[in-house]
Amino acid sequence: MWRSVGCLLLFLAATSAAVAEPSRFTCDTPRGKRVELGPSGKGGDAQWIDDDLDTVRPAVVIDGDTFTVTWGTSVAAEGKGGAKLTTYVFAAARRTAASIFATRTDDTTAEIFRFYFGDKSLYKLTSRLGGPSADTKAAPFVATYLATCRQQSPAAAKP
After folding, report:
1. What radius of gyration, in Å, describes the C-alpha atoms of the chain?
2. Angle of CA points 27, 58, 151, to nearest 5°
3. Are 144 and 127 contacting, i.e. CB atoms less than 8 angstroms apart?
4. CATH of domain 23-151
5. What is the DSSP letter of 56?
6. Helix-, strand-, coil-residue percentages of the chain, each rounded to 5
7. Is the pLDDT at 61 greater than 90, yes or no?
8. Which residues are within 8 A (CB) of 51 and not within 5 positions of it... i.e. 6 or more apart?
């Protein structure tokens, strides 16, 4: 009897330790496009442009309702400066059985990050409002990106 209780307690302790460990994912180079205004600068002249994301390697960590996304240039581009990574930590992300997602906003940009558990894919939707500049690069745009991810083994994730 006591042996059974001891085994059950050991099993529960091991299970809770395994559940408590965050899930870590490394992602392939994302694919994506952005909408930009054409040469006329008018809304009817908008066009989808392929983004150059060859040096971007996103990473995702999910720990309960905490959703961490690292996005940016992880490889120095030829003729350009070093790597520039940005990590966003969302402490109260919205989690469902199928996905986890969070939003980030500042004065000029809104971003939605969503990770789907089933196909291990990361979506990023960006919307930026340009300032009162005549420069077409400052014009409003929307960009959408998709990256396929792989789960890291717990041993590989530890430093």
Report:
1. 21
2. 35
3. no
4. 2.40.128
5. B
6. 20, 45, 35
7. yes
8. 32, 33, 34, 143, 145
Q: Please provide the size of the chain in residues.
A: 159
Q: What residues have CB less than 8 Å from 111, skipping those under 6 apart?
A: 103, 104, 105, 124, 125, 126, 127
Q: What is the DSSP letter of 28?
A: P
Sorted by sequence, the CB contacts under 8 Å of residue 48 that are 6+ apart come out as 33, 34, 35
pLDDT at 137: 52
Residues 41 and 53: their CA atoms lie apart, in Å, by 25
Indicate whether 45 pLDDT > 90. Answer: no
Cα 17 from Cα 14, distance rounded (Å): 5
Domain positions in the chain are: 23-151
pLDDT value of residue 31: 93
